[in-house]
Design brief:
The protein is built from 22 helices and eleven strands. The protein has about 425 residues and is α/β, with parallel strands linked by helices.
Length: about 425
């Protein structure tokens, strides 16, 4: 394995993310996986990488204040790291400047050194200038996202949502009651704290490697429980989890069913199916049958048709993930205004394919981790208009600015006799 400094690893990850258009989590995981790190250096590399991505617009604003002429993208990445350390992390000045300058090729070091030292002298002024900028600059969010959130939720909620997205997320775990009960878990892992007295979820200060390895918990935000609880599966039933990978909700459903019955868990990506299988095996889930299928392209696979109709269906649909931006840091830079209507069409298409698999009197829960009406209420409304056999029982939202968890939406539909 390579030996890189935390700063150099973060820089390598930023360049890969920018050039190869890969997901941020995949990029930094690969860089860290190929590098020998002390635990503190690993944490610092993650902080630098994700911190720069969360603050891209603000960092570029500060760079632009001190350098009006063009800065090539390679040096800009280095300056972003430097400004993030100086003004957001408050890294000691010598380390922030000297170590950042060392990242640059020799011909670029005078420029990096000069800009960062000017930034040190002008720190108060730069911070003051930033505070007068529009919300999209101060919080580094695309203007079109802020505009739609202000329209849908109000200005103060939009500000709170942007601030939420820029805070590092806590580590939540769902206790796997197929292997261990709450009281025993808290005794074995005293560093964990229950989210609430009777909750299935706990928080950790650091990733609980031993608890994960033993299948005692699964890393999962409490908002993900919303669709599972609305579905309310019973032991012995036959459940379709239509878009299941990586398997957190699948395993929770199996726990609610006391590991009795059948869950058919589907995903269109074979690699994600592999991850799902690994997760449910570690969590001691024994009632899941996995099927790789693309509902929109291929329709219903014969192996699912042969099973007959399902008691309940969970469709946790592909979405824009705007409710989980705090965890999926680069989502804000990937989204485009037409993505919401595009996802709406895909979600409707999947619903039309899977809803006939529900038996009469059965329950279908449609859910997303999106905040957008096009992907939530409007999908439900269009589905009800086109599929008259379905009836809406209730729908629920989880809003970060209201509920202090990731955003989520779930609607419970029943199929009339």
């Amino acid at each position: 394995m390579a030996q890189l400094s935390a700063r150099r690893a973060a820089l390598a990850a930023l360049r890969t993310w920018r050039m190869e258009k890969q997901f941020a989590d995949s990029v930094i995981s690969k860089v860290i996986g190929e590098t020998v790190f002390a635990a503190s250096d690993r944490a610092f590399a993650l902080e630098l990488f994700y911190g720069v991505l969360r603050n891209l617009t603000l960092l570029d604003f500060w760079i632009g204040c001190l350098r009006t002429s063009h800065v090539n993208v390679e040096l800009r990445d280095i300056l972003r790291l430097g400004f993030y350390q100086l003004f957001i992390l408050s890294t000691p000045e010598h380390a922030a400047v000297y170590e950042t300058v060392e990242l640059a090729p020799k011909r670029g070091r005078p420029l990096i050194n000069g800009i960062l030292r000017t930034a040190l002298r002008s720190g108060d002024e730069l911070l003051s200038q930033a505070n007068t900028q529009p919300l999209q600059v101060r919080t580094s969010h695309p203007e079109f996202l802020i505009s739609r959130w202000e329209k849908n939720f109000g200005r103060e909620a939009a500000k709170a949502l942007c601030a939420w997205n820029n805070r590092p997320p806590p580590i939540y775990g769902r206790i796997n009651r197929l292997r261990i009960q709450l009281e025993q878990f808290l005794q074995i892992y005293p560093e964990s704290q229950p989210v609430s007295p009777r909750s299935d979820f706990v928080t950790f200060n650091a990733l609980p490697h031993e608890a994960l390895k033993r299948g005692h918990c699964y890393i999962q935000d409490p908002s993900t429980a919303l669709p599972c609880k609305l579905l309310d599966p019973r032991p012995g039933e036959k459940i379709l989890d239509a878009c299941a990978a990586p398997g957190g909700k699948t395993a929770y459903l199996a726990e609610m069913m006391q590991n009795r019955g059948l869950i058919v868990a589907c995903d269109r990506d074979p690699k994600r199916i592999d991850v799902l299988q690994e997760n449910i095996a570690r969590l001691d889930v024994g009632i899941v049958r996995t099927v790789c299928c693309d509902w929109v392209r291929d329709g219903v696979p014969s192996e699912i048709m042969s099973l007959g109709l399902f008691d309940r269906i969970l469709l946790d649909a592909p979405c824009t993930n705007t409710g989980a931006m705090r965890r999926r840091v680069d989502v804000r830079w990937r989204l485009r205004p037409n993505d919401f209507s595009r996802m709406h069409k895909q979600q409707i298409s999947i619903l039309r394919v899977v809803s006939p698999l529900l038996k009469q009197g059965g329950i279908l829960v449609y859910s997303t981790c999106s905040l957008e009406p096009e992907e939530n209420e409007e999908v439900v409304q269009e589905t009800l208009a086109n599929l008259s056999m379905l009836r809406l029982e209730r729908q629920k939202h989880c809003f970060p600015f209201r509920d202090s968890f990731d955003g989520a939406f779930a609607a419970r539909l029943t199929k009339e006799n």
